[in-house]
Specification:
51% of the residues lie in helices and 5% in strands. The protein is mainly alpha-helical. It has a domain of 42 residues: Single alpha-helices involved in coiled-coils or other helix-helix interfaces, CATH 1.20.5. A hairpin with a 4-residue loop joins strand 1 and strand 2. InterPro entries: Cyt_bc1_su8 (IPR004205), Cyt_bc1_su8_sf (IPR036642).
């Protein structure tokens, strides 16, 4: 009854499997396939994401400037005061 990796432990209602840390590859193909895939996916969705962000940025800055202008008093209304 030899025990090997993947069949080391058995609990009655639950069966668990495990691998040796020396038999696993933590980041297989991370740089050879992962980075090009990330760049490809970024290029694919950038035209859907960036234009609304730019529009909302300009609307926000315009609204902030208009709010600051509306808080100022009109100097022409106080020309005749002493």
């Amino acid at each position: 009854m030899g025990r090997e990796f993947g069949h080391l432990m058995r609990v009655r209602p639950v069966i668990t499997y495990s691998l040796s840390p020396l038999e696993q590859r933590a980041f297989p193909h991370c740089f050879s396939k992962g980075v090009p895939n990330m760049l490809h996916r970024t290029q694919a969705c950038i035209l859907r994401v960036v234009p609304p962000l730019v529009v909302f940025y300009f609307v926000y800055t315009w609204g902030t400037q208009e709010f600051e202008k509306s808080k100022r008093k009109n100097p022409a209304a106080y020309e005749n005061d002493k």
